[in-house]
Every structure is written in structure tokens, then in C-alpha cells.
Predict the structure.
Amino acid sequence: MNLKLIHKGKVRDLYGAGDKYLLLVSTDRLSAFDFILPTGIPRKGEILTRLSLFWFDKTRHIIKNHLVASDIEEIREIVRSQKSEVGGQKAEELDWSYLKGRAMLAHRAKRVDFECIVRGYITGSGWKEYLKTGGICGIKLPAGLQEAQKLPEPIFTPTSKADQGHDENVTFEEMAAAIGQEKAGYIKAKSLELYNFAEAHAAARGIILADTKFEFGELGGEIILIDEALTPDSSRFWDKAAYKTGSSPGSYDKQFARDWLENSGWDKSSAPPPLPPEVVKGTVERYIEAFEKITGKPLN
């Protein structure tokens, strides 16, 4: 059969696998400041996939997810049994050895066109908005909060999902007006439940889950969790031992590379420079440390 390339994102490649399934491939590409960097991060795609699989398994009691299979041989057999996609790439022509560990076969679901962000701490763009307005996405917050401070309770701050350009912050009311009050309320409740569960799990392993992004879809009239879940690319993880309020803590993600780019003299409008080996090494180490702390297992 053929696999049809549907979307080539900054990090993931998405293939159609017949009428029922999608093949999601996490690459080692790294994006920063709306550019794909010329230097990849070894094993990054594998780490993102394996961490998503860990969380999909851990959160099944909260909500169903889109995962069909992750074992590469099982994926190949299912893919071969599906109807052909016109104008695609033959499954046999794919580099299956490369896909091992970084591919997931998922149900096709109708995407809910909002990114569902839960914030337990005030940082990043939320901190900047708070300084200007005293709140985030229409949610009024207590006065006098410090950067990186834990919020009295986690808040749900959705953004519109844009295929082109930047996502835009919206209020829950705006989201509900677009997709319906009942559906929006269910997604908000599940987002908060997922965050609270993951935050407690991470905290017990020495990591703070400051904020995270979820995506949802509809399958057979049911809302399910799709895309990735609780990875360093979709979440802000901090080292609990090094955390303090009043400044932005170092995080287990691409921020290390972003910081180098900020200080490299790059103008952020021309092609980005290659990352030096020590920055690649430092970034890899942060992704691996997050994986191993959260899962309690070595990245073999």
C-alpha cells in the first residue's frame, strides 16, 4: 500500500494510512523562533514518542487516546492491510529502521481546533500577559505574583489552532462559543484532570510540571486525547531541586538551544546558524534526563 504525506511539521511528519489511521513520525528536527534549525538533536524524536507512549498508558483511566500501535512490526502489518492512498509513498520504501521507536499509528480523529493549555505556574507568555493585564486569557489572577510562582490552582488557557501563523490566546467563553458549551466544558475538565495527575507524578520524581499543552479530537462521537502528551516539546518541566520563585528556571527542553541562539548574534530573520556540538550535547542531555526521571527507566 501507499502512505500519503499529509503534513510535514516543524518536528513531526504525518502520513495517511488508509481511511482509518494516521502514522505520526517524530523527527530529530528542532525548531526555534519559527525556524527549523539546520542541526538536529539525536534521539529527540524517539524520546518524544516514548514519553508520549508512557503518558498515554498512564492516563487511560482519565481519557481514551488515539494510539493504535507503536511496535514497528505491528504497525507495518496494520498499514499493509489498509486501502491504498493515491499519490503516496509505498510502505516498503520507507526506512522502517529509522521509524523504529519514533512512530505511532493512530486513529484518524476530527481535530478540535484549539490547543488546550493548562498552567500551574506563571511563566513565559503568561507571565508577560499578567504583567500587562493582571490576568491570563481573561482569567483574573491575584495581585503581586512573582515570576515562576505556583498559582493558587491550575488554570485552563486555550489558544486557537492555526495551520498558518501564530496561535492566538482566547478565553474559555470564546472556545465554548466556537465548539459548544458542553464539549468545551468536558475538554477543560479533562485537561485539568490530566495536568493534576501528571503534575503529581512528576513532582514525586523531582520534576515540576509548570505548564503543558493538550490536543483533542473526536472519534465516533467521543472526545479523545491526540497528538503528543506531556513531552518536553509540549510542556515546561523544571528541576524541583533548583526551583525558586522570582526568576525563570532552567527547563528540560530546547530552551538551552534557544538561549544559545539568543546570544549568538543571529538576527532571527535569516537562516539560523548551526548549533555547536556542546549545545547539541547539552540539549540531548536535558531531554534524556526528563525522560529518565519521569519514567523511572533508562533510555536504552
Notes: The two ends are 32 Å apart (CA to CA).
